[in-house]
Design goal:
alpha/beta, globular, Rossmann fold, single chain, five-stranded parallel beta sheet, 5 strands, 56% helix, 153 residues, 8 helices
């Protein structure tokens, strides 16, 4: 099985790489599942297209910036829609200013792909839309892991 790892990148510490690395290792070790890690996929696209300074384009060349970010969006949505069996999402402060995670969770819901969300914000700050798109919501990764083992172990 394949898990898509959704969560803040643009406004997250280290693009959210740390939690993704930890859950990737845990999923492989405990379930033999693979992942789609949008941090790694994005970096790969940046390398392939020599777009290392794409974030600067937001102010210097908005057309070029938009065209590149649209490549990232297509890549991420393709991962959710056509490759993932389920989504694991970290909902934290790094998500609030962004848009990709909102879209990934919504599109997964639309395509009946299970979404398991770890919410670190006060529950009353969690969007009703996002909450309703999720299959299950957890307060931490410990409870998420228990449930994923029950479902897929």
């Amino acid at each position: 099985m394949i898990a898509y790892l959704s969560g803040g990148m643009e406004h997250a510490v280290n693009e959210g790489e740390d939690w993704r690395n930890k859950i990737t290792e845990w999923l492989r070790k405990n379930l033999g599942h693979s992942v789609i890690d949008p941090v790694k996929k994005s970096r790969q696209l940046v390398d392939e297209t020599q777009s290392h300074d794409y974030r600067l384009w937001k102010n210097s060349d908005r057309g070029k910036y938009k065209a590149f970010v649209r490549q990232l969006i297509r890549q991420d949505l393709d991962g959710v829609i056509n490759k993932a069996d389920y989504v694991i999402c970290l909902w934290d402060e790094g998500v609030v200013k962004g848009g990709g995670t909102h879209g990934e969770v919504t599109i997964a819901y639309h395509y009946n792909i299970p979404v398991f969300l770890v919410n670190t914000l006060p529950f009353d700050e969690l969007s009703g839309w996002i909450f309703s798109c999720c299959t299950e919501v957890f307060p931490d990764f410990i409870n998420l892991k228990k449930r994923v083992l029950e479902l897929y172990g």
